[in-house]
Write a structure and sequence with these properties.
Helix content: 10-25%
Mean pLDDT: 87
CATH architecture: Roll
Low-confidence stretches: none
Shape: globular
Largest sheet: 3 strands, antiparallel
CATH superfamily: Urease, subunit C, domain 1
Strand content: 15-25%
Number of helices: 2
Length: 76
């Protein structure tokens, strides 16, 4: 799976599977303003998804330092 396919799977396809594509999953006018801006291009290296620039939820930028850090998936 390419980095682009992984990103689409996690966003647009995830919203489609949850029957929420009208509200979330892509950046479009009228959808919920929940998004993550990255410091580096995830298409160049998928590990760049860990390089957060800012996080926005409900249209407001939130403090990244206040986010909990708990790994969900860990590869040994």
């Amino acid at each position: 799976m390419s980095p682009m396919q992984a990103l689409v799977s996690a966003t647009e396809n995830g919203a489609l599977a949850a029957n929420m594509l009208n509200d979330v999953g892509t950046v479009e006018v009228g959808k919920c303003a929940d998004l993550v801006l990255l410091e580096a291009d995830p298409l160049e290296d998928i590990a760049n998804i860990r390089k957060l620039g800012f996080v926005m939820t409900n249209g407001a930028i939130i403090d990244i330092e206040a986010l909990p850090y708990v790994r969900v998936f860990v590869r040994e």
